[in-house]
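CORE FACILITY INTAKE
Project code: CF-77B
Contact: R.S. (postdoc)
Sample description: multi-component assembly, three entities in total
Requested service: structural model of the whole complex
Turnaround: standard
Below are the sequence entries exactly as provided by the requester. Do not edit them.
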Amino acid sequence: MEAIIIGIAKSAIRLATPYLYASIGETIGQLSGVLNLGVDGVMLMGAFSAFYTVLKTGNLILGLLAAIVVGAIFGLLIAFVNVTLKAEQGISGIGVYIFGLGLSSFLFRTMVGTVETVSGFPPLSVPLLSNIPIVGEIFFQQNILVYGAFALVPLTWFILNKTPLGLSIRAVGQHPEAADSLGVNIVHIRYLTVIFGGMLSGIAGASLSIALLNVFQQNLTNGMGFIAVALVYFGAWRPLSVLSGALLFSTVNAIQIWVQVKGINIPSDFTLMLPYIVTIAVLAAMAKRRIHPPAALNKPFERGE
Amino acid sequence: MKYRNIREISMSLIPLAAFLLALLIGTIMIAFLGANPLIAFQALLKGAFGSMNAIADTVVKATPLLFVGLGICIAFRAGVLNIGGEGQLVAGALSATIVCLNFPNLPGWILIIIALTIGLLCGAIWAGIAGFLKAYFNVNEILSTIMLNYIAAYGMNYLLSGPIMDPLQIRLGSFIPQTARLPQAVDLPRLIPTRLHFGTIIAIVFAILVYVFLWRTTIGFRIRMIGQNIQASRASGINVQKYMVLAFILSGALVGLGGAIEVLGVHHRIFTDGSVSGFTGSAGFNGIVAALFGQLHPIGTIPASLLLGALLTGANKMQRVVQVPSALIGALNGLIVIFVVGSEYLRRRQTRRVERNELKK
Amino acid sequence: MKLKKIIIVLTLISIFVLSLGFGASAKPFRVAVIMPSSINDLAFSQSMYDALIAVQKEMGKENFEFVYSENMFVVADAAAAIRDYASEGYDQVIAHGSQYGSSLVEIAPDFPNTSFAWGTSVSTFSDQGITNVFAYEARSEEGGYVCGVLAAKLSQTGIIGVIGPIETGDAKLYVDGFKIGVLATKPKAQVNVNWIGSFSDVALASEAAQTHINVGADVLTGTAQMVVGAIGVARQRGVLWFGTQADQTSLAPEVVVANQVYDWTVALKPMIQLVKEGTRGGNIYVLTLANGGLKMVVNQEALIGKTIKDIIEGKIDIKL
């Protein structure tokens, strides 16, 4: 029984990692008022960049950096289109997704060719903590990028709630006119959050290609980026709630995999549906007062409007 | 006078310029691969418009885009983004198929009408679930529609692997996850001897209906008002929540109808390879792009869907002729969307400049 | 205009030159293939692409040409491609995907002079009066059985894990054969099968592999292109792997024990011959171990490498 729980919990934490990076990135961007539906495309580009770098140089840190840089570049593109060109954010995001998917597949085809594996980040046991029975094995014998994802959550919470930067970000998303009149540079803040979000999406992709899966293939993420965006809404733009959403989704996923592996007689299609149904159900059950998105979400800012 | 006309023309040409710029980048990428870009673009045009069959393919591809686009027009005008198109297409297609499979004795045209109506209703219900969750449980519709897309996909897989699998497959032992071929009686009539089918006419009729609905009915007026000025709408007593949900449901209805028509007019059965995009061709997402290119106007969505359908069809031909990796075509599609969407800004700036000049006079 | 003239002149010159060189030369045999995934998926599509390359190598580039459309998972687009290739006069159009069947039924009658091939399938639509469609299939359960026997013998825990996409076609055949092979060798063994519902969800396949190993599996197998994730996990946790459709040894040479490799040339070559002789369809070709269409590739390093190493390092004491 113990082994089963440990196994499922470890699975859940691994599965949650890419969602967490991408979701937190999207949360920050949305809090400043920018909607980015192209997360999946950026994840794929980050995944490929990290993979290719590690394949050619064997250097994991360099690979991670490649993912961050590429993610930032895409973040810049998204920020330019959504903030400066004030494009329709939902649509431009879909364009970025299609572009990222196509470009990553294309680069993979022309630069790598056949499917190959790499030696990614190995599991890293945290000294002392990893020896705690049960909890130690679940939480402290994971991959370094897993630790990074979970450390990101309190860090983000702190920045958003306890620093002037965080205040500016939230103000820009909630009352851009007021923030503007107080001298906050809306454009700078939005560029910052979106580029940072891009970097996190890049790391999310890298966590797949050079840590958890150690391989790259066309459409590696298979739509994960969209789930990550959905989780932002689950978490009502609060990092800790986003974390619980990612964990909920991944835990149910881990359980359904286990159910199937054990041969329990439920049609696989129904178990596969579970994470999605449960996520909606839990959110519905938690129906509190109306949750307000950032007031300026998906609305380009123009002085004097 | 002349100056103003030139300005106006140049404004509408901006998206075209963006489109061409993206194609230019595509040219560079193709040349980079060692293929001849001239031949590539010749192939693109030939694939979209080069023969009766090509044009038919373009229109057939554009039809579901039009249905989804119309749905998006309604939803977006009310300020809601419906990204559940993939799931709603499946809901419409599956329900229509199940109806046709289970009542083989009814006359064809009756069955067609029933099946299309059921498809429309099921698409509305599928979107309605998201609307209901939003209205009564505050579940954000972007989350619920994304989740519902996946649930629809797995539901379809389940049905096609068992309950509605083609009995022929079971007999042959090949277990291909698809339904039986629908009776010929429910095939939508062909317009000319190509793949062009009657569903396109239905789509155009509905485009007109949606236009009438949005601009000539009270409900439509309210929906548009909510999208334009939500505070004013509330202030004038409109139940914003109710109308947003209604817009969602209507959106899903159109998409569901589109799915049903895809089955009856094009595929005559449903199949899967695990994901729904083999059946939908990602029309649930591309339709959103079509709606935007059509300026969210139902009549404008018609040429927009046609253009997008031409692009997708032509790009496939380009891949065949020049033998570039299909991923390049995908990247090019994405680039075009980004460029055209981004160019809206220039268009709006031009519009404002013209308006400012007008005011000055 | 000028460009057009130059092209016409050049074409005429080349035709003249070519006709000098070859006299009554045979036109190259032209094949077009439509595939649902990419040619480097290390699975279904790649096996066909590799086979076509092999045929081209054997027949020579001047006698055999082929073009391909990959990632045609949108069936409507595939149908347009099939029709287009046929109207461009290709000798044979191969629809390499079971989902393309309905499209072929519509298109084949319109092009009586083109030969079509449909795989994996056993239906040539002859009952519908269609005579220009070949069918081909792989009896994957044979290689599955072989892998199953070997897996059972090598497994020490007696628990074996299987990761599949959806329960259809050659995936189902392979998995069924594998299970039978395992249970025939070790009736008490436990075979856990997980259908992950997708051909491309690498992350899910990888977690499925982890879960299999967590419940005690020490041998894994699977089919379709998403298993690369599972192979990575197998490599990381030192669990043996059996592959199918293509040779997956390169992904994890330490643990990939054996692969069932599809050699579609066994179907392609007779089809090409028949088409050249004027028969454009009606036959069903099946890859089997007997006719060499299915080949077992065993990787010695994974099979006995560890045992050899243990003996060399003195870890095994052979008490005579």
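Facility notes:
- Chain A touches chain C at residues 3-4, 7-8, 10-11, 14-15, 18, 105, 109, 113-117, 208, 212-215, 217-222, 224, 253-254, 257-258, 260-263, 268-269, 272 (CB under 8 Å).
- Chain A has twelve helices and no strands.
Invoice: internal transfer
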